[in-house]
């Protein structure tokens, strides 16, 4: 059936009487449209040409409008199924140098200005609008410089083609195809642009969307280029105007298009994008981001902050499971954004000892800050943590609260959580006062490190003070003697004074010593080994976040915009982390279910469910020149005794002084080396207890016994033969010894064996013992592998007094020994309990603990402030003498402003000192005014706040992470 409708303007002025009366032809429609059951839609090919997409000046637009009014343009439809029509279409395109092959030529003047796809599959069509390069007016596109290879001649040629995408069969050609004379003779004037072919871009963007890194995308591009793997790539590309190989210069364009496809407006300011996503009245409102961000505050002033705090539903569920009435970690990182932004992460520890993020606190540094890492204080952290606590709401009529938290020694973080660690601070001060590489410097530094370890493990304050007092006496005696450089002893005394006056204040000591960890264990009703002593989980997660989850979104390592960072964290990075955890748990549950159904499977699972398999050090002899030299030194200096024999047990025992022992020591450290049973060798030194193998004391005992056998004819065993040659042999010996000690019990009455009892009943004793040995050996070797994978390679094998604290590695979810060297980077350790309301059920007096923590924070503040003031006061006195003879010139406005700023800062410090002294002496005069101003409130957008009231975060200058030398 047919109904009358308006036709597209035709190219000739042959109008019939019917046309003049308004009738302009028939259109074929289906029965549904003819009956009125379905609306009539104009075919795509007969809609108007989008001339607005052409870059034309006003005179060109007027001329083209006249062409269409006079019907001088070209228009012709073709039947896609007719071979004759397709031959005609090809001839038209070839005659005008606009066919698909000619478009590939570098000298071709036609360029695409607009295109659109319609339909799908075999019915997919593409509509493309081409413009002659000589008609292109670059000023209409806002470009001051013309980059087109041809000069503008005022040409009016343009053409629109509609064709099937898969078959390239032409449906419609229309436009104005005549070029002016100047255009026909115009030579090339500039180097032509060498654009990347759209199919290359399309393939690259598809791979980036799938999570492929940019480097891998480029590798695949090189392979497809070499093998002509792109569908649209011609066999002969020598004349192609397109580039098929990606260059580094394409990275920016790729990432901009990629983020645009993800919903990020790159042309918009980052802070405006962020604001629009969270504004419920904005057309760009994103509900997923809105629900994941529990606190948002735009930066509205120079000294203000942009604050974005994130807790997705998965993070909130994990916080209730692993953070409520439990322990959390808090630490910050920077260098994640192109602006001055800091990211603080709150992390919990799950049942597998793995770190799990609970909240992200993201905020900008004040504009006046030169260093991003210093752009935070106690107020902002406390405010954001309180916002997190409030966002967690309540569950089962119970308010969310954290009982124990850990962060570093920074007073601003500790002021928010009262939790910190010490190793880095102590190391920095020790290296500052004991500079030197002589053996004397090394030995004294080792003694001080051993003392620090004892302080960390101390449980009684008086005992801790006594340790420092005794070491002071030893150093004074060493200073008075002629055996050591007095400067070394003087430096050691400075470090001891630093420990005594700064850190050994009782309330402060309780927060970082083992005593504090014991108190935390009581409150959490856990063992002390379950109290996390360091922030290693968080440090590891920071590295994974930067190097894995964010790096693949970066352009050549450049830091991300703040809007892209937030977008990636909420929509991709965090879901990926929790999805990985979920599928791993599902696979573990599936495997355990299958294992349970096997005979003996339950017994094997019982073995694997042992949460803490104690590491039993075992001795074996491995080639180690440094430990051999240490053993020779012990024997030469007569620091190891002759052995004693216990007739009942047949055990030979040696006593050996520590290599750091001095003749002035009132209570020198000694170690016990035992040889028993013909194959059991132990030593009480930290090196052996932590690593196993053969420490220098065991080696010294072997050397000592051999000397006694050969020189004094003592009947002593050849102790070297008691030591296996390899670690594997040693663990096999240990496994056999443990298996032999297992008592095999049989059931008293016959009963139908269950899946768990099949392992115990149906196997003969030899087979059962073999399985036990195999299990023990496998566990032992697994533990050994953990030790090998840790950072033990940097340890000094002669350092028997190295740190013995164990720290958790987040990435692998295991516990590995960790030692600290003077020349290596220290880990950090602390222990304290966060303040909170008094819990309803716990193992101790929380109010008393809160008072203790507040007192500890006060003592650390006083100790640190006075320590720094005592360091700078001599310099201030000298500066005072210099200023007494100086004056300011009237024209020196800059100097006057600097003097006012310095005076204000010094006056504030003096005011604080006056306030503290006045508390002890009410007679002191003067007043003190606080400079504190309340922070801006948290904003949850309920009405539109326009971007013109906001300011962007401060630009971030290039900064590199530097080694910390802070002694606090």
Number of beta strands: 21
Helicity range: 40-55%
Shape: elongated
Strand content: 5-15%
Oligomer: single chain
Mean pLDDT: 75
Low-confidence stretches: 1-25, 409-420, 743-844, 925-948
Strand arrangement within the widest β-sheet reads 8-9-12-11-10-15
Write up this protein.
- With 968 residues, the chain is an alpha+beta fold.
- The chain has 30 helices and 21 strands.
- Strands 8-9-12-11-10-15 form a 6-stranded mixed sheet, with helices on both faces.
- β10 (327-334) and β11 form a beta hairpin.
- α14 runs antiparallel to α17 (486-503) and α18 crosses α29.
- The longest helix is centred in the C-terminal third of the chain and has 38 residues, at 846-883.
- The protein is elongated.
- The chain starts with a strand and ends in a 48-residue tail after the last helix.
